[in-house]
Amino acid sequence: MDLLEQVITEKPRFHASETEISRPFDARESYLSESSARNLAAGSLVCYGIGEDVLRFLARSIGPSTRTLETGAGCSTLIFALKGARHTVVTPSPEEIERIRAYAGGKAISLDTVQFIAKASEEYLPFADATSLDLVLLDGKHAFPWPMVDFFFIADRLKRDGLLLLDDAAMRSVSILVDFLSVDPGWKKLENFADKTIVFMKTKEKVLDVAWHMQPWTVGSTGKSVPDDLVSRLWREIGRMIGAK
Questions:
Q1: pTM score above 0.90
Q2: What is the reported pLDDT for 183?
Q3: How far apart are CA 108 and CA 78, in angstroms?
Q4: CATH numbers and ranges of domains, the chain
């Protein structure tokens, strides 16, 4: 069995149950079932890796010349390393990074092309020097509004025809973003892995230089025009605000 298949089938445990906050928390803070909340609070090591089919898709989609970035870390990080991608991985957990390094060392997986950033994504991405990215995997913090924040700061760092992977797409904080991208003219849905991981291709060089009325999702997911009475109310409100100055 080659190294790629070993990583996929072994599912190494890099994650300490709750990965989104560093502080200990009381299970009563969670809105999950009592048993699930207690398991998260226990801090035992688990594997939150993306699906095997998604890992194989990643392996097919990248190579030594590929510039990539992910929020979150895990088995996917090792796939990027094995394929020699020029990869940036953003996770606030130094412990996760050390576990990945230890596993890679034990398997003789080179991490020479991987740059680990031990920071929260909202701290790093606004100032990142990553540009012309070929592929981005967003699988970091899932609490609202982090998926949107991460998307905002990488959207125009991803080049035209680049791929964006969103994991845990059924989660409400992520599904909002999936709904938006599914109808936006700057993106094309390419793959849907069991409604959990969705792959989009960017179809425009720049997608953030827009006004609200240029976005089908904002105007209405069907792409219908804004009702005339709403436009009139908007212009009246604008006029009122200008007159009040």
A1: no
A2: 95
A3: 11
A4: 3-9+50-209 (3.40.50.150)
